[in-house]
Amino acid sequence: MSMNLGAAKRGKPKIRPPKKPDPQTSIKETWIKLANAIREIQNHNASKLSFEEHYRYAYNMVLFKNGDQLYAGVKGLISEHLEKLAEEKIVPTFPRSSGTSGTGKRRSGAEAVESAMEGDRFLKAVKTVWEDHTGSMRKLKDVLKYMDKVYTPAAGVPQIYDVGLTLFLQHIVRSSRHSIHTHLIATLLSQIQLERDGEIITRSTVRDCIDILLRLTLSEREGGKSVYSTDFEPEFLRNSADYYRAEALEIIERGDASRYLQNVERRLSEETDRTAHYLSSLTHSQLHSLLVEHLLTPHLSTILSMPGSGLVSMIEHDRVSDLRRLYTLFLHVPKDAGRIALRLALRADAEDRGRTINENSALSESGSAGPAEEQTMDVDPDDVKGKGKAKSQVVSGGNALLAALKWVQDSVDLKDRFDRLLDEAFGGDKSLQMSINEAFQSFINANPRSPEYLSLYIDEHLKKGTKTKSEDEIEAALDKTTTLFRFLQDKDKFERYYKIHLARRLLYGRSVSDDAEKGMVAKLKVEMGFQFTQKLEGMFTDMRLSTDSAHLFQQFTQRHQIPFSLSVNVLTASYWPPTIVSASTCTFGPLLSSGQDTFEKYYAGRHSGRRLVWQGGLGTADVRVRFKARSHDLNVSTQALVVLLLFENVPTDESLAYTEIQSSTNLPDADLRRTLQSLACGKFRVLTKTPKGREVDSTDVFSFNEGFTSNLARIKIMQVANKVESNKEREETQEQVAEERKHQIEACIVRIMKNRKIMSHNDLVSEVAHQLSSRFNPPLNLVKKRIEGLIDREYLERTGDMATYKYLA
């Protein structure tokens, strides 16, 4: 007791280091105990062991410089255990067949189910061994923590857990002794292919085995990459390439583009889902590129051109979903090759459809009996049995006008279709829109009559009495026509036709509304600028001033009476088309001449220095004519009125020859023939022609048709006129346009040179083409001729360099 007390007084006893064991017996016994403990841990009997005791064993071996023996011994035990696990748990589960490669025969039915089950059993065995091994390694890591802390850094070797992973790689995953590696890779590929073929597999098992390959890495000497990226991924990609290459050829042969694209879309979605659920996300980009490479890139033109199901068929049947799918998938093709192929195909299809429109129009027009003619009959509701509104009826004498209107309508409908597909299927892709526009520009300008047709189409919608259309419908039609107008190269030709048609609408009072007319001119002004519409606006100004002047003239006629009511439109010659304001001879006769003289006196009193040229072919007249049965109010052209007045004092049993009428009226031959045709050959024949027939000849004789009858009190007999130019008229128009272009090119050259003073030939030609491109595309040879002409007239001169010009002020 005294010793214990004395010790207590002296303080706490010191901890003495353990006695150095006998190197011959103690280390050997320690290792034997520790090895037995490790085996127990590997056999899942760790609960019987003392962690502290066995930790001390490992600690002592390292402490007394036996770390290398401990490290090597543990590696040997791990290797031994892994070999045992391979023999007992993995090798017996080897599948009888690890499936088939990408191009091999696909399994189906019971065979596929059996293969899936065998593969799943094998993969689960590998997974079980992995979990067994890693569980043991975690326990060993704790027991050998002192060795990992002291010995492994000093010896420059991996820690024991990492060693365990390396040994698993050597004895299990890459075991050459048991061929586990071959079976593992083949089984994984087989499971994936079975799923691709529509079979059900256990994804979680495949994912667990893929995770094992991702966690196992090679040594730095071998590249330091994961086993997944070195052993599995290359084989997987090679297998996938073979699989999808064969599948693409198989489905392509069926000749259904829609089904093929649906399959590609499905495959892309499946593989994305596959990489997300049990493959590495790092594989996604390579796998996606592989699918595009084998399913899309080599088959772009084949898909687009498949008969009955390709792009043409999709557009024809408005299969928007198929087109959207095609566009979306083609965007995946690298280097924009898919979009380029689609652009070319879309342009070719639009051009083909436009070419068909042109051909149909040419056939329709060539099948017409002659130029389209128009007669309009106004009906007085008081003279129609029963109540109703006044009606109008149009009688067409040919197919030319109908062909013209149909060409524009078909072009508008085609543009509407492609615009809708562009928005709904192609996401408003600007590059595709450009290709479509190029196609429309190509086929519209391939039709030499397109400027005239567009103007006729606008004329038809802005002219009242043709079809009943709402303001919104008219506005929509004009907007669509303006879109086609943008594609037109010869805009100067369009301007010429539009002026003529507008002039007729204004002078004959046939515009549906002033707002609609001015709205169309505003659209053209936005497209082409002020100069393009300046004369058009001048025509409106003339009509407005004429309307304002009419009231003053009526007051003037109260003091200078005339035997009829007269309304005159005064036109400024520079604003109106030459065909409208060109001088035409017409002898109005004594009655009409009195009104003519009165207006000239009125106009001279208000304006000095102006000369009036009377245009008898542009006016209309209302006249009451008495027939045997009753009187009728006729609305006719001024020229027709001049002809009718000749028969006023001619006895009913007498007639006038064509030559007599011509000498009395002094009308040009063409105008007189059309006038007599409208009076004697139309629906309302107030004159009788001998001999009978539809055409008027210079030998014909005409008499007043006293026996004319009709249920209508008011009858409108419009002058027979060509709505579409004849070939001869078109040739004349071409000559006039060509002459105008010469002046425009020369004016452009002078304007440019006046500003630049000195320019090279190429620069001058390029600048002229650029400035005139909004109106027409000037031929280079014509520009060159105009330059030569200006040199001859000393506007320009050549410098010492013959390819350079100088402006002469």
UniProtKB/TrEMBL annotation:
InterPro entries given in the database record: Cullin, Cullin-like_AB, Cullin_CS, Cullin_homology, Cullin_homology_sf, Cullin_N, Cullin_neddylation_domain, Cullin_repeat-like_dom_sf
SUPFAM superfamilies assigned to the protein according to its UniProt record, in alphabetical order: Cullin homology domain (SSF75632), Cullin repeat-like (SSF74788), Winged helix' DNA-binding domain (SSF46785)
Single biological process term from Gene Ontology: ubiquitin-dependent protein catabolic process
Annotated Basic residues bias: 9-18
Domain of life from the UniProt record: Eukaryota
Keyword Ubl conjugation included in the entry's annotation: yes
Ranges of Polar residues composition bias in the record: 357-367
PANTHER family per the UniProt record, alphabetical: CULLIN
Any one GO molecular-function label of the UniProt entry: ubiquitin protein ligase binding
The protein's name: Cullin family profile domain-containing protein
UniProt record similarity statement: Belongs to the cullin family.
Keywords per UniProt: Isopeptide bond, Ubl conjugation
Cullin family profile domain ranges (all copies): 449-680
Annotated segments matching region Disordered: 1-26, 356-390
UniProt xrefs under Gene3D superfamilies: Cullin Repeats, Cullin, Chain C, Domain 2, Winged helix-like DNA-binding domain superfamily/Winged helix DNA-binding domain
A GO cellular component entry from the record: cullin-RING ubiquitin ligase complex
Presence of the UniProt keyword Magnesium in the record: no
Species per Swiss-Prot/TrEMBL record: Tremella mesenterica (Jelly fungus)
